[in-house]
Design a protein that fits this description.
The protein has helices at 11-31, 34-37, 45-52, 56-68, 83-88, 98-112, 115-119, 126-132, 136-147, 151-159, 179-186, 199-211, 251-261, 282-294, 304-313; strands at 43-44, 72-75, 78-81, 169-173, 192-197, 218-222, 235-241, 262-273, 316-323, 330-337. Helix content is 46%, strand content 18%. It is an alpha/beta fold. Helix 1 crosses helix 6 (98-112). The protein has 2 domains: 26-89, Winged helix-like DNA-binding domain superfamily/Winged helix DNA-binding domain (Arc Repressor Mutant, subunit A, Orthogonal Bundle), CATH 1.10.10.10; 126-337, 3-Layer(aba) Sandwich (Rossmann fold).
Amino acid sequence: MLAMKPCASFESVNAMLMQSFSAKAVMSAVELKVFDHLQGKAFGAAALADELGLVAERLEPVLDILVAAELLDRKGSSYINSSVASEFLVSGSHFYQGESMRLTMRFNAMVEDCITDLLAGGDVDRVRTDEDWATERTLEGTEQDAKGGALPYVVNFVEKLPGFENFKAMCDIGGNHGMYTMAVLEKNENMHGTVYDLPHVVLQAQKRCNMLGFGDRITMQPLDFREERLPAAQFDLIFTSHVLYAFKDDLSKALAKIAEGLKPGGWFVSSHYSGRNEKGNEMTKASLELLTRLCGYSSHFIEKEELINILESLDFEEIRCRPVHENGLGLMIAGRKA
């Protein structure tokens, strides 16, 4: 029979495939400054198209995608920003995420175009990805991601550590843009920060710190933590953000090197993904894990119990944990060196 009826529906798969296209439409709206024009002022599709020099009948379904994504509100035939768009997608907002979104889309595209080959054992060009961390747009993107995400929660977590007011020196391993260090230093005017990263990254990052007025309080130092060690017993605080996963195959060794860099009584703080097998966000977690493994890492997730066990074996004390967001993937963990 030619007209056999399937037992199940394929609609959910088709919907998932279309979501990839929809995401690119959202990115185009950001690049066209659609949200800047719709901040506090409603436009119909024709009027907005005229403002932007676009074709109205082509722009209208883009606006409808943005409504479906809860990035715009529709009032009759007019559109205006939702609260999410106002906070994260207007270019003048403190929490603007445009470059962060471009970074995510660009990195994903580099991998998704060759998933089949990578599953068969091919390799991502790690030299190219390492070099990309030093570009101005990448630094801006990672900084935006921090400001719109974990940054305020991490700083609040750190400043409540016992003895924080007496800290004199901190370092951030793989600190890239230096924003976490600058934000922590704002809370303690007597601290100096050192940001360690790959040599080609620190040159650009130092310029950003200087521009924001932290040039005399932050030192950028080249360091490949995969091969090199920190200076011994130098820091009251050592921080890592989404760095430890790169050392998951020998996490004990990496944490022992971190312990070497801490003064007695110093604190280690990590912010990273956790809860891989917990309920919720299954598609996001599976996709993130696939992306991570295709790039040659064993996992992007470090579970709380695993990290606590290693820290305790290295004589860390007063270990404390807190989620970055109640419903998110991030976990913050801190331990004090005995």
